[in-house]
Amino acid sequence: MKSDIDICRDTRLTPIEHIAEQAGIQQQELTPQGTLKAKVKPAILKRLAEKAEGKLVVVTAITPTPLGEGKTVTTIGLAQGLAKINRSVMACIRQPSMGPVFGVKGGAAGGGYSQVAPMEKLNLHLTGDIHAVTAAHNLAAAALDARLYHESRLGYDEFTAKTGLPALRIDINNICWKRVMDHNDRALRMITIGQNEPGKTINGLERHDGFDITAASELMAILALADNLHDMRQRIGHIVVAYDLDGKPVTTEDLKVAGAMAVTMCEAIEPTLMQTLEGVPTLIHAGPFANIAHGNSSIIADKIALKLSDFVVTEGGFGSDMGFEKACNIKAQQANRGPDCAVVVATLRGLKANSGLYDLRPGQALPAAIFDEDNAALIAGFDNLKWHINNAAHYGVPVVVAINRFPQDTDAELELLQTMINNAAFTTHVDVAISEAFGKGGEGAIALAECVVKACQHQANFTPLYQLSQPLEEKIMTVAEAGYGASHVELSPLAQQQLAQFKAQGYDDLAICMAKTPLSISTDPSIKGAPTGFTVPIRELKLCAGAGFIYALCGNVMTMPGLPEKPAFMSLDIDESGNIIGLS
Amino acid sequence: MKSDIDICRDTRLTPIEHIAEQAGIQQQELTPQGTLKAKVKPAILKRLAEKAEGKLVVVTAITPTPLGEGKTVTTIGLAQGLAKINRSVMACIRQPSMGPVFGVKGGAAGGGYSQVAPMEKLNLHLTGDIHAVTAAHNLAAAALDARLYHESRLGYDEFTAKTGLPALRIDINNICWKRVMDHNDRALRMITIGQNEPGKTINGLERHDGFDITAASELMAILALADNLHDMRQRIGHIVVAYDLDGKPVTTEDLKVAGAMAVTMCEAIEPTLMQTLEGVPTLIHAGPFANIAHGNSSIIADKIALKLSDFVVTEGGFGSDMGFEKACNIKAQQANRGPDCAVVVATLRGLKANSGLYDLRPGQALPAAIFDEDNAALIAGFDNLKWHINNAAHYGVPVVVAINRFPQDTDAELELLQTMINNAAFTTHVDVAISEAFGKGGEGAIALAECVVKACQHQANFTPLYQLSQPLEEKIMTVAEAGYGASHVELSPLAQQQLAQFKAQGYDDLAICMAKTPLSISTDPSIKGAPTGFTVPIRELKLCAGAGFIYALCGNVMTMPGLPEKPAFMSLDIDESGNIIGLS
Questions:
Q1: Pick from B181, B565, B573: which is nearest to A138 by CB?
Q2: Smallest CA–CA separation between B231 and chain A, in Å?
């Protein structure tokens, strides 16, 4: 089979204006950026306010191997499959970070014959939204260090006399806003800034700091959760960047930088319209992580797509314990709109990996044996799929299992898996289809599309796990126990103290975002399958007042990846004709 | 008078496709980014290869006050003036950095009725070129630290065994590639990276580092000097990022990251077409500093504009000792194309400032008295203007002095200045006109435009100060002595040692880029007027092998600005209708 970029380059694409027109977007609602991508103005929602909404299909997965199970391929493939059976459909996905593109994972445009095109535009820069988030985030950081410096240099009284601004009295030991960069750069995880030549102070105050990858910025979560430009502006102003010497929160509004941050992001709030290889209109918007953030593309993009088409296919990051849980408890509650159907992507290799019989490690290739026929492993791993189906059922949503077929998969094994699914008892509508979207595009996802149409005929009875009005600790317990099936939650003394602090500061009604490993339903990445009776240890809480959640760190979560020994960037170049080569 | 952004917003702009069509750019050579900006494909140069070139007018200035003398206003105004007298004309300017926009100086789109529009697009993001430079630059930095880490972690032999790549043996104490960010962030000037929790090493190797503002990146100079995409790719590969343990240069090609950097910048190489408030087509491209780099917009943009119009108006940063010298000795030699006319912008306040009778300090407002009538100061300051006229004459180029009129300027003073110019003897054609481009747009620059047309009828006899084939030390002497009028050059022991090293490494034929203060013709910012008999001390040399020059640090040059107590960002916001407010 051809490489992804070659498949993409050999496909005749449709001018984006035609894609937009077919989707029902009017010319004045579109800002083309070249011929194959265009910004869509959120003002379209006013025009379509009275129109009925389509069905929202959220693609999730079993507990993934470190390589992923093909959620984006299935999302794009399913959208193409729905188009093949003449349904009006749009897809909504996140914008890929350049970090993984240059690092290990490669692009995130789907793959094979189920891609968003042109993949080199999607994977690099696109329409600059991630750069805008980086710039706005780092502007706040520069504003903070500059304020710290000038207040210290002049003294609080003179600072106020000179500027007419109140002294913020920021506690240098209580700053919670790092800097960001859209690269995998481990050397920036822990740094010291504001250093000076001996005897000088012109570079500001020395302190510990660090960079996260841009996807981990609270601004990225805000972009994905904001309802409109005005809401984004307000949320940005609520961001707490530090605490003052009395322990009171210092916000970007206090720094008088929230307006400029919103200005920096005012084009980023418009989703970008692209197309799949088969011409299905696709909105690309935002790219929040699925651990320290909610891991779903934007509310604005979903809303636009739901007004324009009968089916909207989107995805949540990692397994259903991660992105899908957050789609239901964070995104859906803020958007006031839950999913109508969940698609759980499973692979034979992924289920076997969940048997616990294979030794899998992040950053390493999967063992070849995992592709051999192994009924015992498949049967053992099935528990994990069952767990994820039941998890979606918790939220009152019908489920379709999409078996993402790999070339090595045998018919016998595929049949065994289908039989197991069909024979199991569930509390919601459950169906299953094999997807060959990677190799065959929409044609390979027709069966899946038909199952999804059928599932959407079952009225979803969407219910989040908790209400925002419940106390923070209750919401944490609910996600861990009702959500994961844990038997206990253990808050560290630090987390307990932070909990009390956030409640006292009026943040009790924020949502809870669990930052845990995606490689297990529990918080221990080595525990595969469908564990029970485990404890969820919560080390630390972090406030994201602008995004509207508090994230709970369960173990270590890496917010700045590193480059491997032989990174993906080494194969990228420009050929004699000026084309990009080596992108996957 | 209205604010810049209000003037801009109240002007009816022409769709960029029409601007392009009028300029002679065909549809397939244009990639519109919305309706008011578009990328222009350098492939246009192939179609127009046989077409004759227009006249290249380079706008420069007297030794500026820290506020600048209005070069961009004059550049845009002159282009509009030429259009008013029915000349075919384009302007070429640099892309503004967001650092000054959020910091002190404000935007760089011109001002008043001589602006590039829409100014909020030009000043923020534009088409993402600066972000692309930032991303490509920091990718190389991440690649370097990752290589350092993995080679150290595995040992050289195991690294090679595992990856098949040679060990680069980078000397951690001899790294010359910092990181960059497009913000004024003094806290990042001197930092320590690669720090770890006690007993761990997963964040790489600890070392000193720092961030420059993106305009200071060698990649920005490369973007401005590259002839085409292929040339840019080759230049990127020549960048020296560090030295190995034997003192041999380590390039981005050695890191196998040059291809990915070029991929990251492959859209940035296309200039962006915009328009002035009066509809003159303007190419925006690159934004190198005028001290540690050559401070002019791109060769590609100039070449395209010269093929499309009879007059091309561009500008070099700071006074004629800085941007114009570099336009002649660096840019013109690489482009094989010198200017046909120099416009020297002078202001009454700037000449009085050059009298040495006023106490001016960067970051502080000019004293009000400088706008009062003061013939003595004007006469004393005239020496500086004379120096800059003669400097342009050195290069064999006719000169037009543009007196950028301020509302407070009296007719008597303006007349005195014109008389002094007309009565002085010069070795080149010299003319003078008053420009009221700020308040009156092109109408206010008709007299200037007529002078420029006349000057361009005088055949320029362009000659750079030195040939690239001369030895490095000779080129340094030539710029300091023949260029500035210095009597001596003093190389520090470090600079002498570096000179020997660069010669030994085969870099003797690179150009010389003087990194000195713009606030004096000498290297001491407090010496105003037209100093003679001074010494140019050279502290350090820095190799920019990809850009094709070595820059010589004469004193301290700040490559990362800081934010003031009350930065410009504080007035920026989004109003109820979603419009940007507070940008100037």
A1: B181
A2: 11
Q: Is the Cβ pair B264, A124 closer than 8 Å?
A: yes
The reply to whether residue B262 touches residue A132, judged by beta carbons under 8 angstroms, is: no
Q: Looking at residue B187, what DSSP letter applies?
A: G
Q: Is A86 exposed, middle or buried (0-12, 13-18, 19+ CB in 10 A)?
A: exposed
Tell me, rounded to whole angstroms, the distance of Cα A517 from its chain centroid.
14
φ/ψ region of A286 (left if φ > 0, alpha if ψ in -120 to 50, else beta) reads left
**Cα Rg of chain B (Å, integer):** 24
Average pLDDT over residues B146-173: 98
Report whether pLDDT(B145) > 90: yes
pLDDT at residue A105 greater than cutoff 70: no
Does the structure show a pLDDT above 80 at A501? yes
B441: Cβ contacts below 8 Å, ≥ 6 apart = B77, B80, B112, B113, B114, B277, B278
Selected residues 213-242 of chain A with any CB under 8 Å from a CB in chain B: 229-230, 233
Q: Do A203 and B196 touch (CB under 8 A)?
A: no
Q: Residue B119: what residue type?
A: M
Averaged pLDDT, A486-503: 96
Q: Which of B135, B194, B576 is nearest residue A187 as measured by Cβ atoms?
A: B194
Question: Locate tokens 């042109």: which residue?
Answer: A118
Point out the least confidently predicted range of A362-371, A410-419, B25-34.
A362-371
**Distance between CA atoms of residues B476 and B414, nearest Å:** 38
Q: Cβ of B139 under 8 Å from any chain A Cβ?
A: yes
More confident residue, A220 or A106: A220
Chain B contacts in chain A segment 9-68 (CB below 8 A): 31-35, 39
Check CB contact under 8 Å for B574 and A125: no
Binding residue ranges of A: 65-72
A191 within 8 A of A211, measured Cβ to Cβ: yes
Q: What is the ipTM of this complex?
A: 0.96
Sequence-separated contacts (24+) of B167-172 with Cβ below 8 Å: B168/B244, B168/B250, B168/B254, B168/B255, B169/B244, B169/B245, B169/B246, B170/B144, B170/B242, B170/B243, B170/B244, B170/B245, B170/B250, B171/B242, B171/B243, B171/B244, B171/B245, B171/B247, B172/B148, B172/B205, B172/B207
**Is B267 within 8 Å of A154 when comparing Cβ atoms?**
no
Return the number of other C-beta atoms located less than 10 Å from residue A230's C-beta: 14
**Residue B472 CB contacts under 8 Å (≥ 6 apart), including other chains:** B499, B502, B503, B507, B508, B510, B512, B550
**Residue B191 to residue A191, Cβ atoms within 8 A:** yes
Q: Pick B125's closest partner by Cβ from A132, A150, A259.
A: A132
pLDDT of residue A540: 95
Q: Do B187 and A203 count as a contact with CB atoms less than 8 A apart?
A: yes
Provide the pLDDT for residue A68: 83
Residue A107 in this model has a pLDDT that exceeds 80: no
pLDDT score of B105 more than 70: no
As given in the structure block, the two tokens for residue A456 are: 């959407």
Q: Which residue in the set A190, A208, A582 is minimally distant from B203, CB to CB?
A: A190
Q: Among candidates A229, A110, A233, A130, which has minimal Cα distance to A180?
A: A130
Q: Does B190 touch chain A (CB under 8 A)?
A: yes
CB B177, CB B141: distance < 8 Å = yes
Q: Which residue has the tokens 């290799």?
A: A349
Indicate the pTM of the whole model: 0.97
pLDDT in tens, B238-294: 999 999 999 999 999 999 999 999 999 999 999 999 999 999 999 999 999 999 999
With bands split at pLDDT 50, 70 and 90, how would you rate the model's confidence at B357? Answer: confident
With tokens 């009296």, the residue in question is B410
| Residues of A whose CB is below 8 A from B564 | 146, 150
**CA dist list (Å): A399 to A86, A386, A445, A569, B196:** 22, 11, 16, 38, 45
Q: What is the pLDDT of residue B382?
A: 97
